[in-house]
Amino acid sequence: MANNAFSSKVGLIMAAAGSAVGLGNIWKFPYVAGENGGGAFLLVYLACVVALGLPMVATEFLIGQRSRHSAFGAFRQLNGNNRWQWLSWMCLTTSVLIMGFYFVVTGWCFNYLAEAVVNTFHAMSTDQLTAHFNGFIHSDLRMMLFSLVPIVLTAAVLWFDVNKGIEQLSKILMPLLLVMMILMVIRVLMLDNSMQGLRFFFHPDFSKITPNVILEAMGQCFFSLSIGMGALITYGAYMPPKQRVVYTSVQVAVLDTLVAVLAGVIIFPAVFSFGFNPEEGPKLAFIVLPAILEQMSLPWFSSVLFFSLLCIAALTSTISLMEVSVAYMVEVSEHWAKKNPRIKPLNRHKSVLLVAVVTIAITSLCVLSMTDAREWLSFGGHNLFDLLDDITSCYLMPLGALGMSIFVAWKMPLEGENGLTQNAKGLHRWVCIIYQQMIRWIIPIVIVVIFLYGLDIL
What we know:
With about 450 residues, the chain is an all-alpha fold. It is about 75% helix and about 0% strand. The protein is built from 18 helices and two strands. It has helices at about 10-20, 25-35, 40-65, 70-80, 85-115, 125-135, 140-160, 165-190, 195-200, 210-225, 230-235, 245-275, 290-295, 300-340, 350-370, 385-410, 420-425, 430-455, and strands at about 380, 380-385. The longest helix has about 40 residues, at about 300-340.
């Protein structure tokens, strides 16, 4: 990993924020907030980001920075043995499975961007848009083609070294994303009744804060910040040794949360202005929003702008997801080449090709599971697409985060040269003490609660 590193602090922050910012912010966050009380959910979500998300972002960065390895070598390097190697396999498995269904949704975004460009949604009613969306997700060939587009684009970025590929593109995409979102915010705030949507989003009804809302907010926080899948460990390994983990973590968490809040400011005023229900769920972005955008002035421009937002946000996350596997494959091959001279290590290019092929295979199976072939790709009443989403969100990500918090709290020194205290010079000591207690006790307990909730035990 020594040959790969971010060349600037800005590049690292943009790339790491891009890893966190994705469809979870612009597509998933608004509909989950809409289903869970708007302002009530936002309040709980912000508390979760500060109390849970921020410490876990710092934890993953710290693992990567101190080990100078991807998830494969990080735990062995820091612990001196293979007892925690199961965490590295969990990170790889989680990232690969997430790519399987995430690229499908990213393909939806690229398809809808192409259709927005050719003005497909003009004069369509909500019922027609619903039929159009259902027809698309059951069209295996079209879905596969549009899922292939982001896979190829992501692999093309990763073909180059980190500072020439990920860093340079992140410096372009993240500022572009923020500018486009601000333009959308200005546009929707000019609509009639937009203030009603803002009141729904920013005025909490405390009676709607239930255990279910709290647990949904915790899960969304982990998903949005890319916690528990090894992406931030990998980016931490590319972090300059002297860069402050705490400050970087705060900047990444703030940028990620800002994008989620801006997405809510875009969605809810538009939803309320045209009389739609904010509790529309996952179809909000692909059925309700096209209907709303077609009723706005400059509908073509508004539609192209919104779906461009979704595509850019999706790509910033797919890049980090695939980079986890690419870095992992490079380190695995180097590890075995040292043990057996006859084995040739994989270079970055070969690793990118290998990961891309595996991703295409899993993504294709997810696409087929949503079409007429879904019977042989159905497990326990869930198609493969939904199953991978459930397994990663409810089980693998919480377990990965639990393992990392325990590892850093009990197996990594928090004092001395490799500890957080050394890294956090300039901060009050009580910040380090709070962090230590959070990852030792509070966060593991909370993650166990989330896990039990995912198992329907709670």
